Amino acid sequence: EDLSGLKDAIKECNILWLIPAVPLVLFFIAGESIVIWHMLDCYGIYVKERLCFLFSAVGFFFSCVTPSATGGQPMQIYYMKKQNIDIPTATIILMLVTIEYKFVLVFVGLAVAIFGQDLITTLSVDVQFFLYLGIALNVFCVLFMSLLVFLPGTAKYLITKGFALLKKIHLMKEKNNRTERLEQSMETYKGASRFLKENKLAIFNTTIISFIQRFFLFAITYVVYRSFGLNTETFFTITILQAVISISVDMLPLPGGMGISEGLYLRIFTPIFHGTAMTTASLLVSRGFSYYILVIVSGIVSFITHLTVTDKSKKTE
Q1: DSSP letters of 145-184?
Q2: Cα(199)–Cα(191) distance, rounded to whole angstroms?
Q3: pLDDT at res. 179
Q4: Which of 81, 175, 203, 236 has the smallest count of CB within 10 Å of its CB?
Q5: 143 close to 284: Cβ distance less than 8 angstroms
Q6: What is the pLDDT of residue 196?
Q7: End-to-end CA gap in the chain
Q8: Residue 276, SS3?
Q9: For residue 175, is it left (φ>0), alpha (ψ between -120 and 50) or beta?
Q10: pLDDT value at position 48?
């Protein structure tokens, strides 16, 4: 890209509009911490809200730097275990957080696909492909996880039969106590099912919080849009377009959706920002807040967590 053009475009940015971007990142992290705190409270486990913020930040940091966000939950469980939150309980809570997190994307994605065809038709064919692929992958993920939670008996039967079939055709071997670990994981899903049945109101409330939390991050693109002196498009349009990007890349095995997120952003927002230079400049600013500031803030908090969260489990033993 033309660096001088980018520099000139960024100079036009009104920094006052960017001031809300950092609080939006913090509210995004805090949103998940409220969900975790609320679910722990339903279990009769009382921890300070500050500690849940640490758990949340740890999850986001390791999710941002690992493919398919695979590192976030194991690290959250590690630090929750240090606070005497047993692994099965921590696993159930974080699994429900994930289901709610994915459900928000599925709901928004399906709503856009059904009611937003006028908006979708303005997108290029490749952007539409990634959007529908993202919706399909997220729907599959939510349905599969819901099957595990709501119908654990049926899920166990299907997975066991599938596992037996894979062994029979020599695509998988019985090693590392896979069958035993499968039995243990199914007990976790049964626990999640019980939690859902006993805490329906809590699940409803935390799902609403998850909706608000997601849109805190989507809203960063709107404040960046306004910072460049543009006001033609509405808050709703900009945030939904940013949601389209998140839906499209969420299930792709790339750390933080790197590469594809930027590519889709440029394709979607170039007509809105009236030119490549301003769009690229807005991309640097927007991703700077929604991804890099998120990584930096959550990374710092994760480091503080490592230094300050003591291992209470050893003291108990």
Answers
A1: HHHHHH-HHHHHHHHHHHHHHHHHTTSS---TTHHHHHHH
A2: 12
A3: 63
A4: 175
A5: no
A6: 77
A7: 59
A8: helix
A9: beta
A10: 87
Nearest to 257 by CA among 231, 235, 287: 287
Residue pair 279/263 in contact by the 8 Å Cβ criterion: no
CA-based nearest residue to 94, from 206, 173, 179, 9: 206
CB 148 within 8 A of CB 189: yes
Among 286, 260, 256, residue whose Cα is nearest residue 273: 286
- Which pLDDT value is given to residue 166? 67
User: Which amino acid belongs to residue 79?
Assistant: Y
User: What pLDDT, on the 0 to 100 scale, is given for residue 1?
Assistant: 61
pTM: predicted TM-score of the whole model, two decimal places:
0.83
At 90, list the tokens: 């921590």
Per-residue confidence (pLDDT) for residue 239, from 0 to 100:
94
Whole-number pLDDT of residue 184: 67
Neighbours of 25 (CB within 10 A): 23
